[in-house]
Amino acid sequence: MDLLQTIGNTSLVRLQRVVPDDCAAILAKLEWENPTGSMKDRMARAVIERAEAGGRLRPGGTVVEYTGGSTGASLALVCAAKGYRIRIVTSDAFSRDKLNHMAALGAELILVPSEGGLTTKKLILDMIDKARELSTEPGTFLVDQLHNEDSIMGYRTLGEEIWDQTNGKVDAFVHSVGTAASSRGVGTVLKRHKPAVEIVAVEPAESSVLLGGAPGPHKIEGVGIGYTPPLWDPSVIDAIEPVATVDAKEMARKLAREEGLFAGTSAGANVIAAIRVGQRLGPDATVVTLMCDSGLKYVSTDVYGSEADNA
Fold first, then answer.
1. Could you tell me the residue range of the domain that residue 113 belongs to?
2. What is the pLDDT confidence band of residue 310, given thresholds at 50, 70 and 90?
3. What SS3 state is found at 219?
4. Region at 283 (left for phi over 0; alpha for psi -120 to 50; beta for the rest)
5. Looking at residues 68-82, what average pLDDT do you find?
6. Same domain, 47 and 77
7. Is-catalytic flag, 300?
8. 228 with 298, same domain?
9. Is 254 an annotated catalytic residue?
10. Which of 91, 135, 183, 266 is catalytic?
11. How far apart are CA 117 and CA 121, in angstroms?
12. Which residue in 10, 116, 288, 308 is deepest, having the highest Cβ count within 10 Å?
């Protein structure tokens, strides 16, 4: 087995102590079991392999992408395994742990300054512009995750895993929206198996654009780009839940302290939204969500670092 074959087939566990009595069973996929500690390994393998198959990426080529970190580390892993050069456009808005992880895997980092370390629509657009500029060099493949439909394919196996691991007993899938590829990939698979399953999207309350609100700065890394993602397909989504950054951070800490689940901020947002859905559906239902990435990606941030108590 080579390294890339270890991607996927992650564990599904039931949350115990953070779930109220009147709630559905909340099951969480431990996506940190993937090689870089993130669900993004799934899409990284898919987009690189499909680019190779289509002739868009050739031996000796360079991969370029804009990313807040987890996608960058995943792409860097795949490129290291396959022997490609990779250049990542990222920012000081994202954790130093993520930046160090990408660099450790061989990525060349190009940093775009943020507004006070916050994720904003302007920052995302500036990063995209810089990546497109770099992609004009010969022999370069721009992943362009916000527009690349190959990334959706990487998450269809995740949907099949959820269906198999629950033996088809899944009433809702709840997950934060970044590119929207994962919700779309998983949602399409689950609805094919069970049309009545609810697919619930989660977004930062400070930037609740999917519900028609104004974009705003927030600190739930990897999600909430400040505008509707190009891959967003409302026909797959049944509901949208906004979650505030402060609440997502606190739930991430609570998951670590009370469940032993060490995850990132988006996982905290996922669980808050999953509990809301679970209370609405009742104790006989089953809700599945994701631990999107490992808390190790956030140990230097105010989620878990020395400033956590004051965050």
1. 40-142
2. very low
3. coil
4. alpha
5. 94
6. yes
7. no
8. yes
9. no
10. 266
11. 13
12. 288
